[in-house]
Predict the 3D structure of the following.
Amino acid sequence: MPLVEVSGLTRSFGDTNALAGLDFEVERGTVLGMLGPNGAGKTTAVRILTTLLRPNAGTALIDGINVATEPRRIRTRIGLTGQYAAVDERLTARENLQLIGRFFRMNKADSRERAAELLAKFRLEEAGDRVVSGFSGGMRRRLDISMSLVARPIVLFLDEPTTGLDPRSRMEMWDLIDELTADGMTTLLTTQYLDEADRLADQILVIDHGRGIATGTADELKDRVGGARVSFDVGDAAPEAVLAGIGELRSALGEPFTADGAFVVPVRPGTTAPQVMRSLMSAGIDVVDFELQRPTLDDVFLTLTGRPAEEVVADE
C-alpha cells in the first residue's frame, strides 16, 4: 500500500480555493516531486499533511493514519524541512540536534547519541560544536534536514529545500536526498526548480488551481507533450523544399514548425533522427546544423498549465 494517500483534499481561505479536490499517493521508499505555478496549492498541501492546517474536506492518510483526526500519532512519523532553515543560530549544531531530541522526550544520553549519528551522516562532525550563526547556507540546510530526522520519521517533507542555495550547495543537497532515498526514506518534495524534480523525483505531480492535472515520471510527462523532435538549420532552403525533402517520412513525423530561426520537426515513436537526416541529404538540402531534442519539463509546464516555467516560484 502507498505510505501517503490523499483523496479529495480541499482547503479554502475566504473566497480563494487553495485546494480543490487534490488526489495523489506516495509509494514507500520513493520521492514524489510536487510542481505547480505560483499559488497552485503545493505549500497548503504540505501544511495539511504535516498537521499544521486542517482541510475543509477530503482525507489524507500517512501509514494508514488520518492526518486530521490523529495529528499526534502523525507527528511521530513525519519530518518537515521548510523553505527557510529553522535552526537556532545562538546554539551549536550539536546543541540544536540535542534540543530537538529533548522535544521528542529522549533522555539526555539518547539525544546525545542521536545528535552524534546525524552529525556524522550529514558531514557536520567537524562543525558540530561551532555556533550555527557562522554556518554557510548549505551547512544550515544540512543541519535543518538532520534536525527533521532526529525522531527517525518514515516520511520526510521537503518544502523548497534548495531555495537560496548556490549551485554547489544545491548539488550537495541533491546527493544528500539521494542518500536518504537509498536508505529507504519516503519523501515528498516541493520545488521551484524543474531540473531538481527531473533529477530527484521518482514520480512528479503537476498541480494547478488546487488540483492534480498530471502525474507520472519525468519521461512520461515529457512524452505527453509530443516526444522527441529534431531541430536543424537549413540555410537558405525554402520551407516547401524542406517538407519535400522529408516527404517519404511525412507520415511518421509531426507538423513541422520554425522556432528561433531553426526548422523543427516532431518525431513520432519508431522514427530516428538519422532517418530524417538521410532524407534531407538525399533531397540535396544543405543542413547547416542538426540537433535531436526531447521536451523538457519547461515544455510540460507550458503545455499543461499555460504558464512558462519561469513563473514557478514558492507559493502561498
Confidence is low (pLDDT under 50) at residues 312-316. The CA atoms of residues 3 and 63 lie 5 Å apart. The first strand starts at residue 4 and ends at 13. DSSP finds eleven helices and 14 strands in the chain.
